[in-house]
Design a protein that fits this description.
CATH architecture: 3-Layer(aba) Sandwich
CATH superfamily: Gcn5-related N-acetyltransferase (GNAT)
Order of helices and strands: EHHEEEHEH
Low-confidence stretches: none
CATH class: Alpha Beta
Number of strands: 5
Strand content: 25-35%
Structural class: alpha+beta
Radius of gyration: 15 Å
CATH topology: Aminopeptidase
Shape: globular
Largest sheet: 5 strands, mixed
Amino acid sequence: MKEYELIIVEGKDQIELCFDAFKELRPQIEKKQFVEQVLRQRKQSYQIVAIKIGDKVPCAAGFRFAEFLAWGKVLYIDDLTTLPEYRKRGYAAILMDWLIEYAQSQKCDGLHLDTGHQRHSAHKLYLKKGLNINSHHLSIEF
């Protein structure tokens, strides 16, 4: 029997369960702001898929569907995060497999994500799952 449940997050209570995992990746965010922002981003097709163990979410991914002239219809991963004490257990790989299969089932032309250049362990996973490093993401903050 599996020790975890894979869920598509619904409602405020489940969003709140994901907060600790997202806080690990986005330390600047506070719980109230996180819940409100996730609810707003749902209007842009943002969803969260998560690994749930009991009443804890140790690993989660935020994603959305978008369409680009450059890439066509894609599933874009905004966030993929695992609590430190749950790393190296394969949970992020399980979510990546699910996201890839889900993108294919939704007739996407691809799956895309941006990742910090310092996140070497994450890069190993992405490359192992068949993703290619094919661009630089540039930004300016205001």
